[in-house]
Amino acid sequence: MTLDLNRNAVLDNCEDCDGDGTPDHVQLQGSGSLWIAGTGDGEVKAFHPASGVPIASTTSPTPSNGRDVLLTEDDLLVSDGDGNAVAIFNRITGVYDTVLEGGLDAPEGMALDGDGHLLVVSRGTGSVERFDLETRSHMGSAIAAGTGGLDQPRGILVPGDGTILVTSINNAVLEFDLGGQFIRELIPGGPTDLVDPRGMVMRPGGTLLVTSHGTNSILEYDRQSGEYLGRYDRGGLPTGYWGLGQPWALRLGPDGDVYVSTHGANTAVQVYEESTGLF
């Protein structure tokens, strides 16, 4: 049966934007898919970026407790909080390849450093581990356990300015250099508007967005001073099924919008206009 996965009232096999005779959905091979990992169902699925229709799944074995997803040019990486590893799949086909192991205990957020190596937050050890994606090998700790007071980290961001930002359980965001040396508490811990920080992303204008898992909000900070600038997300329902319930990962989409995954409420991916924060 011919499909219309993007729900634009044009059959997929009839869409050929570049006029080369090959339907777009065949030529792109799912390269624009939105991959999402579940924390409790052992599933990693691809969704159509325009319509949200599920279009593919990874092959077995799949992570039993997916915590974060990262795409490289060739790979789909999923951190497995129960398996103490990072599973690797082909980013186009979803076919299982192998796992990265070593130094990980309850892995969470992932990022690439300036050399293209994979950085993985290890919540159980309070460290950040580095892996070589070409050799599929563990290179050791990028940030040693407990450095700068790092405790039960979850989120990580490499802003591209020679630093690494990592969240800590005391509601802080810590800043390190690329060698793993502690620089400062960018966002100080303790009683704060930020409760149980998870995902982070830089806005094009240079400010930092952080998901506050414990207060069901996305907060904005000055990247240089760490000054709190206010709540970023606006619109939508404050509570209930369509509310922003327990926000987790943050991404800037190819369309420029801000995407956030939620663990509570409707367990969805919600989209906000980048320039305004409107739902």
What's the short story on this structure?
The chain is mainly beta and about 280 residues long. About 0% of the residues lie in helices and about 40% in strands.
The biggest beta sheet is recorded as: 4 strands, antiparallel
The percentage helix is: under 10%
Report low-confidence residues grouped into runs of 5 or more. Answer: 7-11
Mean pLDDT: 88
Number of helices: 1
Strands, total number: 22
Arrangement of strands in the largest sheet: 4-5-6-7
**How would the global form be characterised?**
globular
Describe the structure.
- Helix content is 2%, strand content 41%.
- The chain has one helix spanning 24-28; strands at residues 34-37, 44-47, 54-57, 66-71, 75-80, 85-90, 96-100, 107-112, 118-122, 127-132, 137-143, 156-157, 163-168, 172-177, 182-187, 197-202, 208-212, 217-221, 228-231, 247-252, 258-262, 269-272.
- The strands form 6 sheets. It has a 4-stranded antiparallel β-sheet with strand order 4-5-6-7, with no helix packed on it. The protein has a 4-stranded antiparallel β-sheet with strand order 8-9-10-11, with no helix packed on it. Strands 12-13-14-15 form a 4-stranded antiparallel β-sheet, with no helix packed on it.
- It starts with 23 loop residues before the first helix and ends in a 7-residue tail after the last strand.
Helices and strands in order, then pairings?
Layout: H1 24-28, E1 34-37, E2 44-47, E3 54-57, E4 66-71, E5 75-80, E6 85-90, E7 96-100, E8 107-112, E9 118-122, E10 127-132, E11 137-143, E12 156-157, E13 163-168, E14 172-177, E15 182-187, E16 197-202, E17 208-212, E18 217-221, E19 228-231, E20 247-252, E21 258-262, E22 269-272
Antiparallel strand pairs: 1-2, 2-3, 4-5, 5-6, 6-7, 8-9, 9-10, 10-11, 12-13, 13-14, 14-15, 16-17, 17-18, 18-19, 20-21, 21-22
